[in-house]
Amino acid sequence: MEMIKIRLVRSTISCSPQQRKTVKALGLRKIRQEKELPKNGAVLGMIDKVNHLVEVIE
């Protein structure tokens, strides 16, 4: 399965509770933390919702 690597680059302090839950569901807790996830529709949708907080590393 194809994988995608993401990094949290901004804090979730000033974000809505829904965006905080999305970042937590992606497995990210600390700034500059990286996570490798499967590239599927659910993950891509979550990344799209918080694209101002995360960075995609191909």
TrEMBL record:
<keyword id="KW-0687">Ribonucleoprotein</keyword>
<dbReference type="Pfam" id="PF00327">
    <property type="entry name" value="Ribosomal_L30"/>
</dbReference>
<comment type="subunit">
    <text>Part of the 50S ribosomal subunit.</text>
</comment>
<dbReference type="GO" id="GO:0015934">
    <property type="term" value="C:large ribosomal subunit"/>
</dbReference>
<dbReference type="GO" id="GO:0003735">
    <property type="term" value="F:structural constituent of ribosome"/>
</dbReference>
<comment type="similarity">
    <text>Belongs to the universal ribosomal protein uL30 family.</text>
</comment>
<dbReference type="GO" id="GO:0006412">
    <property type="term" value="P:translation"/>
</dbReference>
<dbReference type="InterPro" id="IPR016082">
    <property type="entry name" value="Ribosomal_uL30_ferredoxin-like"/>
</dbReference>
<feature type="domain" description="Large ribosomal subunit protein uL30-like ferredoxin-like fold">
    <location>
        <begin position="4"/>
        <end position="54"/>
    </location>
</feature>
<dbReference type="InterPro" id="IPR036919">
    <property type="entry name" value="Ribo_uL30_ferredoxin-like_sf"/>
</dbReference>
<protein>
    <recommendedName>
        <fullName>50S ribosomal protein L30</fullName>
    </recommendedName>
</protein>
<dbReference type="InterPro" id="IPR005996">
    <property type="entry name" value="Ribosomal_uL30_bac-type"/>
</dbReference>
<keyword id="KW-0689">Ribosomal protein</keyword>
